[in-house]
Design brief:
Number of helices: 8
Number of domains: 1
Shape: globular
Number of strands: 0
Structural class: mainly alpha
Helix content: 55-70%
Strand content: under 5%
């Protein structure tokens, strides 16, 4: 992987790889703990604890980003996909709402991996933002995996439709916010970060926005197909019931 030097962080260096390893360990630990507590009858308490941790983490991250000495209007507002997902994911665990769980599933696995591979991060381990960045993105994937493995969430085409509506509305909202201000929240504005990211290969704005939307929805379809094929060949006419959660 080509290294991109930023202010204190290098994509692909030992710090980046260590952060990825720690994130993976945290994901596995949460799933193992969740399965353990499920067997012991304490799964609901553990799930709520995870959810509240995520909500507090989101609040701390946003407050820190909005501090006067750190605030930048084009990057500090919680308007990126992962900013929204980091709030939606714990709410999904806390409420069990099917729509929130669907959005968490699609955004966690379609969008968040890009933040792991090519972080638009300037701060190194000596800065609080470094830790908030990695924790915030890690919990999104943790909660999505937890919902699938522990809580038995199974996405279907209705969930795909829900996610399409939410994602489309969010893109429209971001365009309305980005265009008059020259911002690039959600990477759908007419500018790009200094760090190389996959969206660079999609051409210039506004064509890039169309490509992002189309590619994302191809990925969303691929994310539903294995579950529906499994349900079909297993003889089930609908996604399995989500154990212990409301829909």
């Amino acid at each position: 992987m080509k290294e991109q030097q930023t202010q204190g962080f290098v994509v692909g260096d030992s710090t980046h790889l260590s952060a990825l390893l720690c994130s993976a360990v945290l994901m596995v630990a949460c799933i193992v703990a969740g399965k353990h507590f499920q067997k012991q009858g304490g799964e609901q308490t553990f799930t709520r604890s995870l959810a509240w941790f995520g909500l507090v983490l989101w609040g701390v991250a946003q407050i820190y980003a909005l501090l006067p000495n750190r605030f930048e209007s084009d990057s500090s507002l919680p308007l990126h996909w992962c900013d929204a997902a980091a709030l939606i994911a714990p709410l999904a665990l806390l409420t069990g709402a099917r729509r929130l769980r669907a959005v968490t599933y699609f955004w966690a696995f379609a969008f968040t991996p890009l933040a792991f591979i090519t972080p638009t991060l300037e701060e190194g381990p000596g800065e609080l933002m470094f830790w908030l960045f990695w924790l915030s993105h890690t919990v999104i994937v943790v909660y999505a995996l937890y919902d699938i493995i522990v809580l038995r969430f199974r996405p279907g085409w209705k969930d795909f439709a829900t996610n399409t509506l939410v994602a489309s509305a969010f893109v429209i909202f971001l365009l309305v916010v980005n265009i008059p201000n020259g911002w690039n929240y959600g990477f759908v504005g007419n500018s790009m970060p200094d760090v190389k990211i996959p969206m660079d290969a999609l051409g210039s704005w506004p064509l890039r926005v169309i490509w992002i939307f189309l590619i994302a929805h191809v990925v969303f379809v691929i994310m539903v197909l294995p579950w529906r094929l499994c349900a079909r060949f297993c003889g089930s006419k609908s996604p399995p019931v989500d154990a212990g959660r409301s829909s």
